[in-house]
Amino acid sequence: MEALAQFIVAGLKSGAIYALLALGFTIVYASTGAINFAQGEFFMLGGVIGVWLLSLGMPIPLAVLGAIVLTAAIGVVFEILAVRPIEGGDPLRIIMVTIGGSVLLRQLALHAFGPDELTFPAFTRGPSIRLLGAAIERQTVWIWGLTLLAVLALAAMYRYTGFGKAMRATSIRSEAARLVGIDAAGMVTASFGLSAALGAMAGLVVAPLTQTAFNVGSAIGLKGFAAAILGGLGNPVAAVGGGLILGVLESLTAGYIDPLYKDAVALVVLLLVLFIRPQGLFGGAAREKV
Amino acid sequence: MSSRALRWAVPAVVALLVAVLPLVIADRFLIKVFTFVGLNVIVAVGLGLLFGYAGQVSLGHAAFVGMGAYTSAYLTARLDWPWIVAFALSGAVAGLGGLVLAIPSLRLRGHYLAMATLGFGELMSLVFTEADPITGGVDGFTGIPFPSIMGFELRQPAGLYWLVWGVAAIAILVAANMVNFGPGRAMRSVHGSELGAVASGVDVTGVKVRVFVISATFAGLSGALYASVVGFISPSVFTLQSSVAYLAMAVIGGTASLAGPAVAATLLTLLEYTDALVPGLSRSAAQTIQEYQPDLYGLAIILVVLFAPGGLAALWRRRARGGESG
Asked: N or C: which end of chain B has fewer CB within 10 A?
């Protein structure tokens, strides 16, 4: 029983990280109809830029904030330079560009910050908290807290702010949104900035537990995508659900079967969902129509 | 010379040059480099079919290369099967993997196949690393015998070179045949207008699946050749980075062309071995080129997609047309 509680805590911890990445995929997918293959690199950038800002002497909160803002700026610049010029917003070409971009961002991080693993200190020091027999590290509380905050802030933004409504309108019908005076191209840029910020936050908040390096992006990106598609691509709530379920599945597999299979879980889930239920657990029919 | 004669003359001259290359080069390492070029041409031509004709993206072709390599290594080194049987089976195993992956994901729109192949590639990476008894794990698989055909073992660089380029030639012929006859027309119609193709009774999904299986088979055969040419394989060869390199070859090579991807594969592979090609090049300069090679792939994919979506092939097509009218 105690072991189970511990596994579930561990699962919800990584699940929250997957949820943040899945949200990033969902936001860009909603605005472009394309998958952003560079999403995992935003996660990586958050961590390595955070470590760099700390090394410049910044206090932790400022380094965290600075890394999120810088990564969001990189996301915005990337969109303006590489995605916006694509006429008609052809999803296949957007995907290609993000594949190239992900390689490029990873390489730039390698040249700038080196090949070694980097460590980021825990946000707050102190012993683990005990709950129902499970030990919960303080950093895990930060992960859950910040994920919850991000989800609530996103939900509020989509529902109540003009900006959020404009983004929703663009994702439903970009042409019509433009006709009523919404800057549709600007909304795509905003979606890249927003998903980059979410990715960076995920990368920062988990860095004290896992360390970070220039090459952590592609694996975590794939897991985030598995989470997004498990929930159902294009639905923020489902993305969060998919992330948490995937995290717990992984943790139970590692705990009860063999830690060796932990990394295979997300890949198997990804392929199974694509093959059996591409609309995801919580989605309606998404079969291609001709 | 008329453009019609040119269309036959150019490939014939290129084929002749490729065939006599080992006779004019004395440096054994250089012959090996051009053998690697041939291995990548095989993969790039298959991927060119997939990307340039069927409009699909794969980020997992290194996994098919790996499947072929490990299949052939295991069958020849551990089970002592005849090389030619192991070689054929390597292609079949990779092709079967391609079939299993393609059928479900090609019912859906383009980006699902890209993600499915990425996931598949990472999964196979795990298998190559963890299935120690078969693959040798992270340490790799050593002692893979040279290819032998009917009792005749090929161990000289020139012999291996001819074997690899022989397979490359067959792959190019098979692909050209697909492009110019029945399935090729269907493929081009898919690329032109998928809706129109469906309306005129083309089995779009069937065509895409067939192309994907062919490209996976080519990759598997290339892997089998790699294993027996080098004699050693390890999981670090068949990574996402290699898949991206293959994709870069297909994208830079261009759409609706087989020569484009083949030329791009040749140029990108040679770039990896600049130190062998340029005698005076310093060790550190060669190293810098290698370090920045992935940057180049990433940047090239972006630039081609943004500014020259047709790739190299479209550039020289345009030039040829301009020449004719002028």
From this structure: C
